[in-house]
């Protein structure tokens, strides 16, 4: 690693991070480790970055802090080394993590099963439970366990907290979380709707409630739809502070059309491809998760490319967009009925926050249902929470930037403090 001029002060503290508590948030994927160091009370991000291509030929990583960009390239065979790369990046940037007043390490864990309804202080038992839940999330939980093991080795004296993507949705009503699958098989193999992106759905629905409450609205029974549209995408119906339904299921494959995932599809596709194409279960799993969705439909999964291609007359991109929006509208309609009416729709995540065309197409022609967008407000590229519906729209439509890292940091701090 290269060593630029130190940027910390004489005591080795982060620039601008004197004595306030910080939380290190880790999001371990199968081949990546995202990290963020932040002050969850002042809501200030001190540094963030990613280690990529873990276990592949040549790893790469970078850390960003203000104007500083600290790169790294080299072998990263596993998450243990990835964690060392992270601490090395901080050191090279003149910021010792050991000196950064880290009071908790928050780990994003995709699958917490039915058991983990709230964030958990990680001990050996919790760690083993997360590993055991890998059967339900083979693409996600094993990586989280590797990240947890590596971080606990490096920071043995700091509390580690697991924040589960599924926790918010453990409160789903029974009829929403139960599949119409043979009950004995479902029970034996723990098959039910767990949902995902729960940290984001909870955070965004709380932001919407807080905004409306500050305007004097009684939000105890507020009927919300949250559309988290990132590379992975999910919708939820929330009443008051309770989820009534969500589109992701046993795994994050179900529901909306996504960057590379099919979303809802006839389960018989597995049998058909197995019998007709001789594909193995793993091959079909990879096809449905990694090379379908927008990527499979038009060869692109970044909406910057897709919208540019549509403007240039690309018919495959246009069809992919229509398929994407068709699915979204189906969910908006069905959740409005599930909720028995609708007060708010919030768009969030990379696409929800940045692609006005998706928001417009999703909600156009719904005036009869009290949904009227303000085209100018929708087209404006602003940061922060903003309303994009017209003043006379019965349903308030908002863009609400999500911040999963902040939510994880805040929950981790709370758990770490109450464990003392
Ligand atoms: P994830 O966390 O699932 O990777 P994000 O919420 O970061 O997803 O969203 C990533 C996606 O958001 C990108 O693939 C791209 O399609 C879209 N996106 C992000 N920024 C923009 C932008 N400025 N304009 C258009 N699309 C964007």
UniProtKB/TrEMBL annotation:
The pathway entry for this protein reads as: Metabolic intermediate biosynthesis; acetyl-CoA biosynthesis; acetyl-CoA from acetate: step 1/2
Q: Where does ATP bind?
A: 34, 228-232, 302-304, 350-354
Q: Where is the active site?
A: 165 (proton donor/acceptor)
Q: What is its main location?
A: cytoplasm
Enzyme kind, highest EC tier: transferase
Keywords from the named record: ATP-binding, Cytoplasm, Kinase, Magnesium, Metal-binding, Nucleotide-binding, Transferase
Tagged with keyword GTP-binding: no
According to UniProt, the reaction catalysed is: acetate + ATP = acetyl phosphate + ADP
List localization entries: Cytoplasm
What Enzyme Commission number(s) apply to this enzyme?
2.7.2.1
Organism superkingdom: Bacteria
Note on cofactor: Mg(2+). Can also accept Mn(2+).
> What does this protein's UniProt record list under function?
Catalyzes the formation of acetyl phosphate from acetate and ATP. Can also catalyze the reverse reaction.
Subunit structure, per the record?
Answer: Homodimer.
- Give the protein's recorded name: Acetate kinase
Source species, please?
Answer: Brachybacterium rhamnosum
């Amino acid at each position: 690693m290269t060593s630029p001029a130190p940027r910390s002060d004489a005591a080795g503290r982060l620039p601008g991070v004197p004595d306030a508590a910080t939380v290190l948030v880790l999001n371990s994927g199968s081949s990546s480790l995202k990290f963020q160091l932040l002050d969850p009370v002042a809501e200030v991000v001190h540094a963030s970055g990613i280690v990529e291509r873990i276990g592949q030929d040549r790893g790469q990583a970078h850390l960003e802090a203000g104007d500083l960009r600290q790169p790294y390239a080299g072998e990263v065979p596993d998450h243990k080394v990835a964690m060392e790369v992270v601490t090395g990046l901080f050191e090279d940037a003149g910021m010792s993590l050991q000196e950064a007043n880290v009071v908790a390490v928050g780990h994003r864990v995709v699958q917490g099963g039915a058991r983990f309804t709230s964030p958990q202080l990680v001990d050996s038992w919790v760690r083993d439970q997360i590993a055991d839940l890998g059967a339900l999330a083979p693409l996600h939980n094993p990586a989280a366990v590797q990240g947890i093991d590596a971080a606990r080795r490096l920071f043995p004296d700091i509390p580690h907290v697991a924040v589960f993507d599924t926790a918010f949705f453990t409160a789903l009503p029974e009829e929403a979380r139960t599949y119409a699958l043979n009950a004995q098989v479902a029970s034996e193999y723990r098959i039910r709707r767990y949902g995902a992106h729960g940290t984001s759905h909870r955070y965004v629905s709380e932001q919407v409630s807080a905004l409306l409450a500050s305007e004097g609205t009684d939000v105890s029974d507020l009927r919300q739809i949250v559309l988290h549209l990132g590379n992975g995408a999910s919708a939820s119906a929330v009443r008051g502070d309770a989820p009534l339904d969500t589109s992701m299921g046993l795994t994050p494959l179900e529901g909306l059309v996504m960057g590379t995932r099919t979303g809802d599809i006839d389960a018989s596709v597995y049998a058909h491809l197995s019998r007709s194409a001789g594909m193995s279960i793993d091959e079909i799993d990879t096809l449905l998760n990694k090379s379908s969705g927008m990527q499979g439909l038009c060869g692109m999964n970044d909406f910057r490319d897709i919208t540019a291609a549509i403007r240039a007359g690309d018919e495959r991109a246009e069809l992919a967009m229509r398929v994407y929006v068709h699915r979204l509208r189906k969910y908006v309609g069905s959740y409005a009925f599930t909720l028995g009416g609708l007060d708010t729709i919030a768009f969030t995540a990379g696409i929800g926050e940045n692609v006005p065309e998706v928001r417009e197409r999703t909600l156009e022609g719904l005036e009869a249902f009290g949904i009227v967008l303000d085209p100018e407000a929708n087209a404006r590229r602003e940061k922060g929470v903003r309303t994009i519906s017209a003043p006379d729209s019965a349903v308030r439509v908002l863009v609400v930037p999500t911040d999963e890292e902040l939510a994880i940091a805040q929950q981790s701090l709370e758990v770490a403090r109450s464990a003392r």
